[in-house]
Design brief:
Elements (H helix, E strand, L loop, with lengths): L1 H11 L3 H13 L2 E5 L2 E5 L11 H27 L8 E5 L11 E11 L5 E3 L3 E2 L8 E9 L2 E9 L5 H13 L6 E8 L4 E8 L8 E7 L2 H5 L4 E3 L4 E5 L2 E5 L3 E5 L2 E4 L4 E9 L2 H18 L7 H20 L2 E3 L5 E3 L1 H10 L1 H6 L7 H14 L10 H7 L10 H7 L3 H10 L1
Antiparallel strand pairs: 1-2, 3-17, 4-13, 4-17, 5-10, 5-12, 6-10, 7-8, 7-11, 9-10, 13-14, 15-16, 18-19
């Protein structure tokens, strides 16, 4: 098989036209065709139902085109046939500009923010950075949060000043990545003061914490046991209904969310998010049109099958903006499409997740075309029929097994070469 593999490699490097010419030359000769160290037997294989002409190579292209086209459309249909493909809702502040189409606006919501959510902040008393603290030796302290007590310790020496002592405390706290508190030291060059700040990682009343001394007095001396900013929840109303949240990012319905930034009343317009849906729909229509336009190696039989499926749902599809032009190609009316996505009628017209719906019927047809392309080659290309018979279910999915069962090693080499 080494010679065959080498020949196959050379074959793949040729242009499509050169491939056809080369195959044709092999079929019109006899005996053994050679090229370098590779060889290709051309014994009598007509009895196996394969035409000894370049039309066999053309048949291969048609079968390949049917299978590839069917796979492309099946994948596009699968993406559209999921409820998650139809997105959710976006909320946009009415006072700001936006890029959403007016046709996709589905309503509005009024939010009155009474209090923003905040994270707890404990800030030490500002100390002269270069002065020595009135502390030395091992200093132990605890941070308690959500019922869990976390212990820390630092060792202060005579070489430490206030700034270095604060940094040691910050380093000890930040070494615990699982802790819901972070620490930082700031220094004011103008005043020479340094400050240690402890901040909760998350907002909300449940994320508050306490800091206390265990051994020594590092917490009390630096004033770390008092909250400068309390941990609190956001309080607000949505269309008059009171609500609270541990975060300033809140849900307003339909999967939409907004982030509260200030106290007061804000109005948000709600828009259907159609970008992903439109992309998936355009892909399906493009793949559908690829197959119905037939082309050089396309299948009229498969095109007729798809057109028949479309005609069954044409009225419902037209209502949501999908229609057929004079050339038989599917097109989209943008305005109707935006509305149909917003009100959910697109999913109904496509039959998302339903047996016997438009998407389901197209999917079934594509599965047939992929598994048995011979059914769609038509009578106009007998070579395609002969070639695609190798995919018939009666011989299994492996055409090489079929060749072996015919007890023709030369046939095996032929199909290894063609494929």
């Amino acid at each position: 098989m080494a010679g065959v593999n080498a020949l196959g490699s050379q074959f793949k490097q040729l242009s499509q036209l050169s491939q056809l010419n080369y195959i044709s030359s092999l079929f019109t000769g006899g005996g053994v065709q050679s090229q370098g160290s590779s060889f290709f037997p051309t014994t009598d294989i007509a009895s196996y139902g394969v035409n000894l002409s370049s039309s066999t190579a053309l048949a291969k292209l048609q079968v390949t085109a049917i299978k590839q086209g069917a796979e492309n459309l099946a994948n596009a249909v699968a993406n559209l046939n999921k409820p998650s493909a139809y997105g959710g809702v976006n909320a946009v502040n009415s006072a700001s500009s936006n890029s959403f189409s007016p046709a996709s606006r589905i309503g509005a919501v009024s939010i009155d923010t009474l209090q923003l959510a905040s994270a707890q902040v404990n800030r030490s008393v500002a100390a002269q950075a270069e002065e020595r603290p009135m502390l030395s030796g091992l200093q132990s302290f605890a941070i308690e949060q959500d019922g869990e007590r976390n212990l820390f310790s630092v060792n202060l020496t005579t070489a430490d000043n206030n700034r270095s002592a604060q940094q040691k405390i910050a380093n000890a706290i930040n070494s615990r990545e699982d802790l819901g508190v972070t620490a930082s030291v700031s220094f004011n060059e103008e005043t020479g003061l340094s400050t240690l700040t402890l901040t909760g990682r998350e907002t909300g009343a449940e994320n508050g914490f306490t800091v206390s001394d265990i051994s020594g007095s590092v917490v009390s001396q630096f004033g770390l046991n008092t909250a400068a900013t309390a941990a609190q929840d956001a309080r607000y109303t949505v269309d008059g209904v009171s609500q609270t949240s541990d975060s300033n990012t809140i849900a307003v319905g339909g999967g939409a969310s907004v982030t509260l930034t200030e106290v007061g009343t804000q109005t948000y317009d709600l828009y259907s998010d159609s970008s992903d849906t439109r992309a998936a729909l355009n892909e399906m229509i493009s793949r559908f049109n690829d197959l119905t336009s037939v082309g050089a190696y396309g299948s009229q039989s498969l095109a007729d099958r798809l057109n028949a499926i479309y005609r069954e749902s044409a009225t419902d599809l037209a209502k949501v903006g999908i229609y057929s032009g004079l050339d038989g190609q599917l097109r989209v009316n943008d305005q109707l499409m935006e509305r149909s996505i917003a009100d959910g009628s697109l999913q109904e017209a496509l039959g998302v997740g339903q047996r016997g719906g438009f998407l389901d019927l197209v999917s079934n047809a594509m599965n047939e075309a992929d598994q048995n392309p011979a059914r769609f080659t038509g009578s106009t290309n007998s070579a395609a029929g002969n070639y695609s018979a190798l995919y018939d279910a009666s011989y299994g999915s492996d055409f090489r097994l079929y060749a072996a069962e015919m007890n023709a090693s030369n046939m095996g080499l032929l199909f290894d070469y063609l494929m």
